Amino acid sequence: MRKEPTHFMILIAIFAALTAIGAFIKIPLPVVPFTLQIVMVFLAAALLGAKGAFFSQIIYIGLGLIGLPVFNEGGGPMYIFKPSFGFLIGFLIAAFIMGSYLEKKEQKTMKEYVTANFIGLIIIYSIAIPYLYVMLNIWLQADVSWRYVLMIGFVTSIPADILLAIVSGFLATKLVKALKPIYLPSKV
To answer: Which CATH entry fits the domain spanning 6-179: 3.30.1300.30, 1.10.1760.20, 1.20.1070.10, 3.40.50.10320?
Structure first.
C-alpha cells in the first residue's frame, strides 16, 4: 500500500468531521431526521475519490460507534440498533461507489457529479429503507408496514435529497477546480 500524502489524509479527516457537523444541521422528523450529512458524502466522493471517501466515512462511523457523540442522536455501539443507522451504512457504501464511478470518468462535468450523487441516493436508500423496516419491526417491535416505512424514511426526505444532489454536483465542479492543483490526488 502506498503512502498517501499528508494533505490528502487531512482531507479525509476533515470530511469525517464535516459529516459529523452535517449530522447536527438537521430538521427533526419522526424516526429519521433530515440532516446535511449526505452533502458531505457527495462532496467526499467528488473530492477524495473512492478510497478517500470510504475512509472518511469509516472514520466518522468508527468515532460514533466507540462512543463519541457525532451521530445526530449521540453515539456508542448500541447505535447500530437505531432505525436510522442504515443511512450511515448507506453513506459508507455509496461514498466508495460514487468515488469509483467518478474516478472512471475522464472529464468530470456537473452532469457526472450529479449522476454520481443520484447513484449514491439509490444506494443509500436501498440500504436504509430495509434496515429501517427491520429495526422498527424486529428490534423495536413496532409492527409497522412497508408503506409507513417508505413514508417516514423515503417520501419525507427524498425531495430535499434530490435537490441536495444537484446543488452538491454544482459545488463539486467548483471545489474540484479550486482544490485540485494543490490538494487533491491525481485520480480525482
So the answer is: 1.10.1760.20
